[in-house]
């Protein structure tokens, strides 16, 4: 049993994901999740405000780790390079791949979870923008760099989940290169 | 009175925005919106499923116009250039600047409206991805190009709202150039 599975929060997350996968998100109650994890409902609500939140247990930690890593990058680094360096901490925070794959499927099948995910991603994007601004980048640059960073992070996560042996930092570089190609292949855009 | 203000939907949108601005989103009812627009509640629900939706009246039309414009671009155009060309139709669909500025302020002040906006943006991004895929671009390229396009669209809209005399197509080009600079200024990302 990994350290994550052994803790209360991790047991609740795994129990919830298993039940959502087996019998559906709508049909699963907090009481059932707690019971499956051999815990009480009260324990559940100590960790999560509602049923939706149980699949987003790592989002705050990811945000905090990214922000801390951004502030640890040497000050003369460009905005996107700063984010790319910070993003390399992601695998230290991510849940196990098997958990994340099942989680992706459950979220894709349930609009309330999709909405919650959009809110979490918007919060993360906002945190990256704020951290870059605090490092002296102007607001439009910080916001655009955060947008680019979020696109790279999404692509990287998809590739990382699909390939058991992939190296996260290499995937980050490859995703950034792909985005750069898209931005540079049509140097002169034509307007009607 | 412009054509938009003269129609039923436009009158409801303007009445709702005025009331949200004057007395707050939470305190405004659908009955009050209908009354301010000299219409019935039934008229309101013919156009909008709920109170939140009244500020997103143009989102479906924008999506449809973008998708149609994407499919009208010559087939050998790169994915981002295709989006950039399609985006030039936006000012034909956008509500008047004064309306949009007040709308932005109301959305920023109300989390339920922020959530609805995130859902609308995700839907638009998905529509762009699908349209690019239908033109033969592979899934990762289409998704990354849509991400880049959404970032450019957001920046352009902000600049367009801030400057009464701005040319939309020029702002699109400038925003794309800024994103390109961010992507290319650190050609070699370093990893710890």
Structural account:
The structure is a homodimer of 192-residue chains. Chain A is mostly helical and 192 residues long. The first copy, chain A, has 2 domains: 1-55, Orthogonal Bundle (Arc Repressor Mutant, subunit A), CATH 1.10.10; 58-184, Orthogonal Bundle (Tetracycline Repressor, domain 2), CATH 1.10.357. The first copy, chain A, is built from 11 helices and no strands. In chain A, helix 5 (59-72) packs parallel to helix 9 (111-134). The longest helix of chain A is centred in the middle third of the chain and has 24 residues, at 111-134. The first copy, chain A, is elongated and about 50 Å long. The termini of chain A are far apart. The relative contact order of chain A is 0.10. The model of chain A has no long low-confidence stretch (mean pLDDT 92). The interface between A and B is large, with 42 and 42 residues.
Fold topology:
The structure is a homodimer of 192-residue chains.
Chain A: H1 3-6, H2 8-23, H3 30-36, H4 41-47, H5 59-72, H6 79-87, H7 90-93, H8 97-109, H9 111-134, H10 139-162, H11 168-184
Helix pairs in contact in A: 2-3, 2-8, 5-6, 5-9, 6-10, 8-9, 9-10, 10-11
User: Can you tell me the CATH class of the largest domain in chain A?
Assistant: Mainly Alpha
Oligomer: homodimer
The CATH homologous superfamily name of the largest domain in chain A equals: Tetracycline Repressor, domain 2
Cα end-to-end separation of chain A: 61 Å
- Strand proportion of chain A, as a percent range, falls in under 5%
Class computed from helices, strands and strand pairing of chain A: mainly alpha
- Total number of helical segments of chain A? 11
Count all strands of chain A and give the number: 0
Major sheet of chain A: none
Detail the poorly predicted runs of chain A. Answer: none
**CATH topology description of the largest domain in chain A:** Tetracycline Repressor, domain 2
Number of domains of chain A: 2
Estimate the global geometry of chain A from the Cα principal axes: elongated
What CATH architecture of the largest domain in chain A would you give? Orthogonal Bundle
Helix content of chain A: over 70%
Query: How do the SSEs of chain A run, as a string of H and E?
Result: HHHHHHHHHHH
> Mean pLDDT of chain A, nearest integer?
92
Largest interface, counted by CB within 8 Å of the partner chain's CB: A-B, 42 and 42 residues
Radius of gyration of chain A: 19 Å
């Amino acid at each position: 049993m990994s350290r994550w599975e052994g803790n209360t929060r991790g047991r609740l997350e795994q129990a919830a994901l298993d039940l959502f996968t087996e019998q559906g998100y709508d049909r699963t109650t907090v009481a059932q999740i707690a019971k499956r994890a051999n815990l009480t409902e009260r324990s559940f609500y100590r960790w999560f405000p509602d049923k939706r939140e149980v699949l987003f247990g790592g989002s705050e930690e990811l945000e905090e780790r990214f922000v801390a890593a951004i502030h640890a990058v040497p000050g003369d680094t460009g905005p996107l390079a700063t984010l790319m360096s910070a993003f390399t901490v992601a695998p230290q925070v991510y849940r196990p791949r098997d958990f994340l794959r099942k989680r992706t499927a459950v979220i894709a099948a349930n609009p309330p979870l999709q909405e919650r995910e959009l809110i979490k991603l918007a919060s993360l994007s906002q945190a990256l923008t704020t951290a870059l601004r605090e490092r002296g980048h102007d607001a439009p640059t910080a916001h655009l760099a955060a947008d680019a960073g979020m696109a790279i992070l999404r692509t990287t996560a998809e590739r990382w989940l699909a390939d058991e042996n992939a190296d996260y930092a290499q995937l980050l570089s490859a995703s950034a290169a792909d985005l750069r190609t898209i931005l540079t292949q049509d140097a002169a855009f034509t307007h009607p």
